[in-house]
């Protein structure tokens, strides 16, 4: 892919590629909380992007996806790896997804809820990590159940347990581990959505957005994303389909 001066100046206006990461998503980023350089699928992609642009890389970390998305307003990053949601697309130009993560529910022991569809009923309270991609999705789509928000993924689990809520929403790979530490709880089969993990840049940087769209398709088609998933031993995620031309 040819890299024009406009692409390089829009992606690295400070001379560095400032990449925003959600340190709260353990499927995409690891080790960051320990003070080490972040590792994982998203950091690997960032390194590859910086290598192709031939610019230094600088990570800008946030502990939730909501804070990462909000930081676009302050110009805190030039590229970010996060879920592509319509509410975020007002200020962020997204590529097509490079990775999909299924989202479903965990219910407590003794729950009468058996399917994902049965969750959206009057009287059902769902714990959710505030401003996560699945919070934004559920906010648009739930008709009857009530969302009860907490700060971060750990916070939503703690809230679910402490307040004895009817369901915990989350990324399926994380809920699998939550189920193991909560005796009697059950993971519901299927999913209510698949989170579309994409690459974004601030709106208005058209050359940058165009290049990132090509980058996302190339790393999928070449097997690069699949290799990153295997290299980081991440389970429960899949390479997103190629975007329809």
Structural account:
- With 245 residues, this protein is an alpha/beta fold.
- 33% of the residues lie in helices and 24% in strands.
- It has helices spanning 5-11, 41-53, 65-70, 133-141, 152-162, 172-181, 206-221, 224-231; strands at 17-22, 57-62, 79-83, 92-94, 99-107, 125-129, 146-150, 167-171, 186-187, 193-202, 238-239.
- Helix 4 links the parallel strand 6 (125-129) and strand 7.
What's the gyration radius in Å? 18 Å
Unreliably modeled segments = none
- H/E element order: HEHEHEEEEHEHEHEEHHE
CATH homologous superfamily annotation of the largest domain:
Periplasmic binding protein-like II
Give the percentage of residues in beta strands.
15-25%
N-to-C span = 17 Å
Helix content: 25-40%
Largest sheet: 11 strands, mixed
Q: Topology, please?
A:
Blueprint: H1 5-11, E1 17-22, H2 41-53, E2 57-62, H3 65-70, E3 79-83, E4 92-94, E5 99-107, E6 125-129, H4 133-141, E7 146-150, H5 152-162, E8 167-171, H6 172-181, E9 186-187, E10 193-202, H7 206-221, H8 224-231, E11 238-239
Parallel strand pairs: 1-2, 1-3, 6-7, 6-8
Antiparallel strand pairs: 3-10, 4-10, 5-8, 5-9, 5-10, 5-11
Brief rundown of the structure:
The protein has helices spanning 5-11, 41-53, 65-70, 133-141, 152-162, 172-181, 206-221, 224-231; strands at residues 17-22, 57-62, 79-83, 92-94, 99-107, 125-129, 146-150, 167-171, 186-187, 193-202, 238-239.
């Amino acid at each position: 892919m040819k890299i024009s001066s406009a692409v390089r100046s829009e992606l690295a206006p400070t001379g560095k590629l400032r990449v925003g990461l959600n340190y709260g998503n353990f499927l995409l980023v690891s080790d960051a909380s320990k003070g080490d350089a972040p590792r994982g699928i998203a950091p690997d992609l960032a390194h590859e992007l910086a290598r192709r642009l031939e610019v230094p890389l600088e990570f800008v970390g946030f502990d939730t996806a909501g804070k990462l998305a909000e930081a676009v307003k302050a110009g805190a990053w030039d590229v970010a790896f996060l879920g592509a949601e319509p509410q975020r697309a007002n200020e962020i130009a997204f590529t097509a997804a490079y990775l999909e993560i299924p989202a479903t529910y965990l219910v407590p022991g003794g729950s009468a809820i058996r399917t994902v569809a049965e969750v959206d009923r009057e009287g059902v309270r769902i714990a959710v990590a505030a401003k996560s991609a699945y919070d934004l999705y559920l906010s648009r789509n739930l008709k009857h159940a009530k969302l009860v928000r907490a700060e971060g993924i750990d916070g939503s689990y703690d809230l679910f347990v402490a307040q004895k809520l009817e369901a915990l929403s989350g990324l399926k790979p994380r809920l699998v581990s939550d189920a193991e530490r909560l005796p009697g709880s059950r993971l519901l089969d299927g999913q209510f959505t698949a989170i579309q993990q994409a690459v974004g840049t601030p709106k208005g940087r058209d050359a940058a957005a165009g290049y990132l769209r090509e980058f996302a398709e190339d790393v999928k088609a070449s097997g690069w994303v699949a290799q990153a998933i295997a290299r980081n031993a991440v389970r429960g995620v899949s390479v997103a389909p190629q975007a329809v031309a």
